[in-house]
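> Could you send the DUF2817 domain-containing protein prediction when you get a chance?

Sure thing. Input:
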Amino acid sequence: MAGRWTASRRGPGALLGAVAVLLAGCGDTGGPPSGGTVRRTAVLGRSVQGRPIAAVELGDPHAARRVLVVGCVHGDEPAGAAVADALAAGPRPAHADLWIVPVLNPDGMAARTRGNARGVDLNRNFPAGWRPIGAPGSAHHSGAAPLSEPESAAAARLVRRVRPTVAIWFHQHLAVVDGSQGPGDVQRRFARDVGLPLRALPVYPGSATSWENTVVRQSAFVVELPGGRLPAPTVRRYAGAVRRITGS
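Output:
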């Protein structure tokens, strides 16, 4: 179902001046403003417990380069949300359309659990090699079916709508850029910019990046942040590396 956009063209920090609600379909909003850049927010859907799953769009909605950042997939891995928040509060890229989902799993973040409120690991719930894994609440429970969870379904709708040319899904705590799949040149540059090794990690059934790479070939990759809370300079370094991907 279509929602309503209200776009802001004020400077950085005007996040509250850009409010939109996209109901479950995350579909066409009637067209973005023509010319210039935008800063606007959307509710992509709601979690199992009814919390909003918010997204922020920054930059040129007509740009060919579309970048997606997902900050927190597992609720006990919150550092990516800090990087996403820094991006959302920052400048609008002039030559890219940047989409930011700070927290895909708000129930898990509130409870400090890996899974969502039904005990599902969202990173095993996507339709790419999905298979039944574990019981609810176990570390890698994959859910009743692919995209059975409102959080993963909201992310899938956004990916299908935006079709990102580059997507970064943040996790913790391995301190590595996963080179197993995705845009190799972007991964190498990102790893160099943030000072992390580039290493191929195992490809897991039902993972978000594996699925996204079937929608837009070799677009998505995982960045495993260091453990714990990131110091402010480290957050800025990661946000800066993402901005360089957008060309800003």
